[in-house]
Amino acid sequence: MTATLSTVDLALARRLVDLTVSVHAGEVTAICGPNGAGKSTLLSCLAGLVQPDTGVVAIGGRMMRQIPARERARSIGYLPQSPHVAWDMTVEVLVGLGRLPWGDTATADGRAAIDEAIGIMDLHDFRSRRVMGLSGGERARALMARVLATRPAWLLADEPLANLDLTHALTLMRRFRAQARLGRGVVLVLHDLATAMNFADRVLVMSGGRIVADGEPAHALDPAIIAKVWHCPARWLGEPGARALSLG
Amino acid sequence: MTHRRLVILLVAALALAVPLSLLAGRVWIDPLAPDTRNAAVILLQLRLPRAVLALVVGAALGMAGAAMQGYLRNPLADAGLFGVAPGAALGAVLSFWTGYAASLWLLPVFALLGAAGAMALLALIAGRDGGIALFTMAGLMISSLAGAITSLAISLSPTPFAMSEIVTWLMGSLADRSWREVEIAAPLSLAGMGILLLGGRGLDALALGDAAARSLGLEPRKLQAVMIAGIGLTVGASVAVAGVIGFVGLMVPHLVRPLTDRRPSMLLVPSALAGALLLLVADMGCRVLPLAGGELRLGIALSLLGAPFFLALLLRMRGGHM
Predict the structure, then answer these.
(1) Which of A155, A158, B20, B177 could disulfide-link B181, Cβ–Cβ 3.0 to 4.6 Å?
(2) Which CATH class is domain A4-83+152-247?
(3) B191 or B34: whose pLDDT is higher?
């Protein structure tokens, strides 16, 4: 799959400065950077939720702003940072909201997509549980299943590990990788550099609205770059794929 | 309970309540011996239009409340927050004040103009970015403004008679309504409810928050336009023919929600049916209840029911049982 979700000359007032970036299907791309670096803004631009003041966001050669909202919603799944759900629905109904862009919750296709998403996130036992009664980790899984139920070509998630314990974080990252291997483009805002190092195919490091490093994790998260961007001396320990960051 | 079963249940309840409401009143009509004097006139010219009006107004207010709660993602929201009802009330009051109420067509027309004015103002203030917080604040301010001007109009009313007429009308009632009111309210309310149904999917998406909703294809400005038009027509038409009847839009979605799968779109039709049922039964109660000096005003009856309901709700929320 060669489709690229690319932002060209994406210069958003205040937050993003003369940014040109393209992300690719079949890869896990991690966006890292200190607070206020513009990570979430970039992700929102990629999701088509924010229009850059100048420049364009393009997906597969088409300008984002020319793509109808519903068509965009079918191809880009976006998981916001907030785990808030307004009404106390069951997990199954919540996951079914992912079919809204298709309007087919009641059809066989829609049911199959919902079942598939519930299966991927291992939520069979939670199907008829109510959202408000779930733990933070369970709710995060349900919300992720909601995104998967759309069967989007792109999975964009803003700090998806924020509310998860170690085990659930690990499981979720494995699932993101599996989705990328299936040909989906996965773009994640990640705070934990070790997670980015171990699970991403590519890392974008942002600082002050600019991309200051871009490439394979070992290259983009080089200790010298970490020291420059986070102002904090660091070195990597362990084997590739299971690295840990030692600070100070 | 499945959506279909809930709808069937409510329709069945209505099928029982409507005939009962036609028979009940100051003059009881015995269906087995319908030789009551003027039975046909009472049924066709008094009770039937009144029952139909209760159904129309109740359905409109019930659905408007459900849509409003879904839109604001708040179970305590009410269509009254929009400023549409106070706007319509203001229009109606101005019609009294200018003496136009004497011409029976002008009161509802003024009320609808008031509702339209409130809607236009709301769209003008909050319409640009489609944000919900600004929208709510604008609605509250329009409510306050309309309320203040209404009070001013009452205090300056030309004659004591006009004042009493205004105050009585503001209490909300279905007494002495005819087919004329049905002709005004039914098409507008049905159009408004049809528009609100179009917003169902958007309301479902909003359950996940603004950003997620937009990522699911929601266009906030379109939904806002749907809400303004839908609430404006339903609530405006209701106030135009029945005065201000509060609490229906707050209570009904609350009672119905636990019977649904909690998606706001699935709450719209059941809330309309339950609203119709509530208003029909409450209006019947008002007619039957013996009260010196006339009958209990429907608006007062519902406030007497609704305010304690609201307080109980707050107590439950405080206890974390929502």
Answers:
(1) B177
(2) alpha beta
(3) B191
Question: In A, which residues are within 8 Å of B264 by CB distance?
Answer: 87
What ipTM was predicted for this assembly? 0.89
Question: Does B257 map to a domain?
Answer: yes
Domain ranges of chain A: 4-83+152-247
pLDDT tens digits along B142-198: 889 999 998 898 888 777 877 887 788 788 888 888 888 899 899 999 999 999 999
Strands A28-32 and A185-189: what pairing? parallel
Using CA atoms, how far apart are residues B215 and A101, in angstroms rounded to an integer?
9
The enclosing domain of B244 has a CATH number of 1.10.3470.10
Interface of B with A in 140-179 (CB under 8 A): none
Residues of A numbered 44-73 whose beta carbons fall under 8 angstroms of chain B's beta carbons: which are they? 44, 47-49, 69-70, 72-73
Q: Which two tokens stand for residue A102?
A: 């298709």
Interchain CB contact of A199 with B (< 8 Å): no
Range(s) of the domain holding residue B206: 76-317
Q: Report in angstroms the alpha-carbon separations of A195 from A31, A122, A200, A237, B25.
A: 11, 21, 8, 13, 73
pLDDT of residue A15: 58
Indicate if the pLDDT at residue A10 is higher than 70.
Answer: no
In a domain, B281, yes or no: yes
- Tell me whether B216 touches chain A (CB under 8 Å): yes
The residues pairing with A62 across neighbouring beta strands, listed in sequence order, are A59
Looking at the complex, does the CB of residue B264 fall below 8 Å from at least one CB of chain A?
yes
Of residues B166 and A103, more confidently modeled: A103
| pLDDT at B100 (0 to 100) | 56
- Phi, psi (rounded to 5 degrees) for B27: -105, 115
Give CA separation, A228 vs A33, A37, A120, A220, B164, in Å.
11, 13, 39, 12, 77
A1 confidence band (pLDDT: 50, 70, 90): very low
Residues A248, A233 contacting (CB under 8 angstroms): yes
| Segment A41-68, tens digit of pLDDT | 889 988 988 887 777 788 777 888 888 9
Give which of A57, A59, A87 to mutate to test B binding, by max B Cβ within 10 Å: A87
Residue B5 counted as domain residue: no
Distance CA A247, CA A236 (A): 9
Which chain B positions have a beta carbon within 8 Å of A85's beta carbon?
Answer: 207-208
For residue B223, is it within any domain? yes
Q: How many domains does chain B have?
A: 1
- Is B206 in the A-facing interface, judged by CB distances under 8 Å? yes
Q: Check residues B37 and B243 and name the one with the higher pLDDT.
A: B243
What's the average model confidence in pLDDT over A220-245? 92
